[in-house]
Design a protein that fits this description.
It contains 12 helices and 9 strands. It is α/β, with parallel strands linked by helices and 284 residues long. Helix 10 runs antiparallel to helix 11. The radius of gyration is 18 Å and the shape is globular.
């Protein structure tokens, strides 16, 4: 089998400069150097020149681009996809952290599951200070995820049904095969659920998701993150309900009755909304 290709890491940037520097440093520290990093900045950060800081690193694998006008969440993700060139792409969060073997594990998954459209390695959650944490919502995500002890490839209605019970994936840790998503793109009306919508479209077109339980990524959950800021809003749950109803219709048309039923019931989403109203956000 030929060597796995270089992984292209795309980072939409609009946020905390300190967390951004830590995120970039975690890429530079990868044990497998077969990666490129493209930072696409959406709006200037006061008092911080990202382009100059990146240039000071002297690493030709890292590039920076500044959007001429602010595109917003959906627009900047689409810009990352439209300007990508590598066969495998990661949409890395500018406040998250890759552990040193992240790229190595991904390239091993590519070699093993060359036909998989999406790759999902193991993830742990950290707080704003970088400490490991296990909020209730993330414990629920872990409980909903497939129980696997070794790298596994999943597909079809059973996988979509599982995701309709609750989206247990972590978008910034996923690696996508560009050919599988280039023509699909991100929806511009789903700023908080665009990843789930794209993933389901890929799977309903016959795609597959490969999982590796090896934890190589730290997803940062903190009060200032975009996902946390939207977690308690009514708009987020309206968007989620609209998407799941839409997916239910697609599943019904495909004859996927179990997946359609899970999407219609959206038990986890409804429960999350009720708990937030009572106690505050559990998970974004």
């Amino acid at each position: 089998m030929s060597e796995a290709p270089v992984v292209e890491i795309c980072m939409p940037f609009h946020g905390d400069p300190g967390l951004f520097r830590r995120a970039v440093a975690s890429v530079v520290s990868q044990s497998d150097g077969a990666w490129t990093l493209r930072v696409i900045e959406d709006g200037h950060q006061p008092g911080f020149d990202a382009a100059a800081w990146i240039a000071s690193l002297g690493d030709t694998r890292i590039s920076h681009a500044q959007n001429a006008s602010q595109l917003g969440v959906c627009g900047n993700f689409q810009k990352c996809l439209d300007t990508s060139t590598a066969p495998y792409i990661v949409f890395f969060g500018c406040d998250d952290v890759m552990l040193p073997d992240y790229v190595r594990v991904l390239r091993g998954m590519i070699s093993r599951f060359g036909g998989a459209d999406v790759l999902s390695p193991g993830v742990s959650v950290i707080d704003g200070r970088g400490h490991l944490t296990r909020p209730v919502g993330d414990r629920i995500k872990r409980a909903l995820a497939p129980r696997i002890g070794q790298p596994t490839e999943l597909e079809g209605e059973r996988l979509v049904t599982s995701l309709m019970h609750g989206n247990w994936t972590y978008f910034p840790a996923l690696c996508w095969r560009r050919d599988a998503i280039a023509a699909l793109g991100f929806r511009d009306d789903l700023p908080t659920t665009l990843d789930l919508e794209l993933l389901v479209r890929v799977l309903m077109q016959g795609g597959s998701l490969a999982l590796d339980p090896t934890v190589v990524f730290h997803y940062r959950r903190h009060g200032d993150s975009a996902s946390s800021l939207t977690a308690a809003s009514r708009e987020r749950f309206d968007e989620e309900a609209r998407l799941l109803d839409e997916i239910a219709g697609r599943c019904e048309s495909a004859g996927w009755k179990r997946a359609a039923r899970a999407a219609r019931w959206r038990v986890t989403s409804r429960l999350h909304h009720l708990l937030i109203r009572a106690r505050g956000p559990l998970v974004a």
